[in-house]
Design a protein that fits this description.
The protein is 0% helix and 54% strand. By secondary structure, the protein is mostly beta strands. It is elongated and about 130 Å long. Strands 11, 14, 17, 18, 21 and 22 form a 6-stranded mixed beta sheet that branches. Strands 1-4-9-6-7 form a 5-stranded antiparallel beta sheet, with no helix packed on it. The chain is built from no helices and 43 strands.
Length: 534
């Protein structure tokens, strides 16, 4: 473990495996170290790179380790796998005290031995709080029974589509490999007779049966041609009843002719080459069993058809918008590439010519009905907030609206509950008026007095956004009330009171600074200053 992680090694289940700078396992520093921190309850593995053990029946494993125990109750194991998910145990202990340092040697005979993707793992299983450290070093895997293998080589060709030949999986029994960028492949397998298969998503797999593999002999020219799975063609879509989409397509062809390959078998030790014919899988024209179709809308599958004779589909009850459709064919061994894309625009007409006008303190919103299928009702929005649903006519009175700038829109809701897009905007600068025809202010406010300074009279202006009791009083610089100018109920409107420079007794007041104070229903209070000059 001179570097961390060693090339091709990985960890899983947690973050407690780390690089140790010590030599506690009995080897030469550095070493692998399982740390108790962070405290984690899990199965945590330190996993080797894949190793090709083809032809081996047993392996020999050697490693050094040391356990610094804390509380016990956990398990330490060595495991193997050939697929990265199923693990088989080689060695296991459940420490109740410190162990080692010690050198362990053992035979590995798990079912994973002989795989071309053999992996080894050092495993902690339990609560890491219960251990201090586990140190591992000097891992050696080898020996065992000598390999007895033969070799298969060949070439893979893709006839179309957008697949990558390096993603093709060539399989012989439990042995697999991938071609290089040029399509050539080579792999070792145990002696025997194999059906060799090449497969790739969206392509028809190709099979060569009865391939004889002998010890130390290379069986070459096991070549494959992968054709894309036949795709549904001629996809078309039409709109029915305003917002239903009817799709139709043509069923793909599902067969192709197959020629048996010529295979070369060579034994380098005997310096000989012999050629013979073997037969490919003889399903009639290598028939592809068409199982059905998948329907996609905007790249999301919306339906699967399990009867291959069905070549239509109805996508019902769509909201207004633009939709892209494609169809794939489903075979017994995979899914085809997509068909052509059919773009359909569903249009549910929105109300037109919206208008908004002030009527007293209210706003009347009107619009024209769309000329299309039967309507259920309308929705009315103010500044994109729904304010009225189930409006059956082509107008709506929005009552008691404060002064301000507003935008109204309307949606049509068609039979079945399908909504149109928003109507165009109806914009209004709303200045409501009261019963006397006076404008209603946006807010309650003590606006000021004019003139200021003044002699002998001044106008005090204020605004009421809502009707209510209002008091206007004048105070001198000592805080003494001089006169009450208003004390009673007023309508919402702009108002003015006049002060003539006299107190509540009708006497003229002296020059100086005075304050006037407004109170409205206890919700608004404001005080301002004025100057009387004589």
């Amino acid at each position: 473990f001179d570097s961390w992680l060693p090339t091709g090694w990985t960890t899983s289940g947690g973050s407690n495996w780390e690089h140790g700078s010590s030599s506690n396992a009995g080897g030469i520093a550095p070493e692998a170290k399982f740390n108790w921190a962070p405290s984690t309850i899990a199965v945590q593995r330190l996993i080797s790179m894949p190793v090709n053990t083809t032809g081996s029946a047993t392996l020999e494993l050697e490693f050094k380790h040391m356990v610094d125990n804390w509380g016990g109750g956990y398990s330490l194991r060595v495991e193997t796998t050939s697929n990265g998910s199923d693990w088989n145990t080689v060695w296991e202990i459940n420490p109740n005290g410190n162990v080692g340092p010690e050198l362990l040697q053992m035979d590995v005979t798990t079912p994973d031995v002989g795989s071309s993707t053999f992996q080894l793992a050092f495993v902690f299983d339990g609560d890491s709080w219960d251990i201090n450290y586990w140190y591992v070093d000097d891992v050696i895997l080898g020996g065992g029974q000598s390999s007895i293998v033969g070799t298969i080589t060949g070439h893979v060709n893709l006839t179309g589509g957008s697949g990558n030949v390096q993603d093709v999986i060539v399989t012989a029994g439990t042995f697999t490999t991938n071609p290089d960028a040029s399509g050539d492949y080579s792999f070792q397998v145990s002696p025997g007779i194999y059906d060799v298969v090449a497969g790739l998503d969206h392509y028809e797999p190709d099979t060569v049966t009865g391939v004889l593999v002998e010890q130390d002999i290379t069986t070459s020219d096991i070549d494959f041609t992968l054709d894309p799975l036949a795709v549904p063609t001629g996809l078309t879509g039409t709109i029915v009843d305003y917002n239903d989409v009817h799709l139709e397509w043509t069923q793909p062809a599902t067969s192709r002719s197959i020629e048996p390959p010529t295979i070369t078998i060579s034994n380098e030790k005997l310096s000989r080459t012999e050629t013979k014919q073997i037969e490919k899988a003889q399903r009639t024209d290598e028939s592809r069993d068409l199982l059905g179709y998948k329907i996609y809308r905007d790249d999301v599958m919306i339906h699967e058809i399990t009867n291959p004779a069905t070549i239509t589909y109805d996508d019902l009850a769509l909201d207004a918008g633009e939709y892209d459709y494609h169809v794939t064919a489903i075979y017994d061994f995979g899914e085809s590439y997509p068909s052509n894309v059919e773009t359909i625009e569903v249009i549910l007409q929105a109300p037109q010519n919206p208008q908004a006008v002030t009527q007293g303190q209210d706003i009347l919103v009107t619009w024209d009905a769309p000329a299309s299928r039967d309507l259920s009702h309308y929705k009315v929005y103010q500044d994109l907030v729904l304010i009225a649903n189930n409006v059956t006519g082509t107008s709506y009175l929005h009552e008691s609206v404060p002064a301000g700038n507003y935008t109204y829109n309307i949606k049509a809701v068609y039979d079945g509950g399908y909504e149109s897009a928003m109507s165009p905007d109806a914009v209004i600068e709303h200045e409501p008026v009261n019963a006397d025809g006076l404008l209603i202010p946006i807010k309650t406010e003590l606006c000021g007095n004019y003139p200021n300074p003044f002699n002998p009279t001044t106008n005090i202006n204020f605004a009421l956004s809502e009707a209510g009791k209002v008091t206007i009083e004048v105070y001198n610089i000592k805080g003494e009330r001089v006169v009450t100018l208003q004390n009673g109920y007023l309508e919402a409107a702009y108002h003015t009171v006049v002060w003539n420079g006299k107190d509540n007794s009708g006497n003229n007041v002296s020059s100086g600074i005075y304050f006037y104070k407004m109170r409205s229903d206890g919700r608004y209070t404001s005080t301002r200053k004025m100057i009387l000059l004589k």
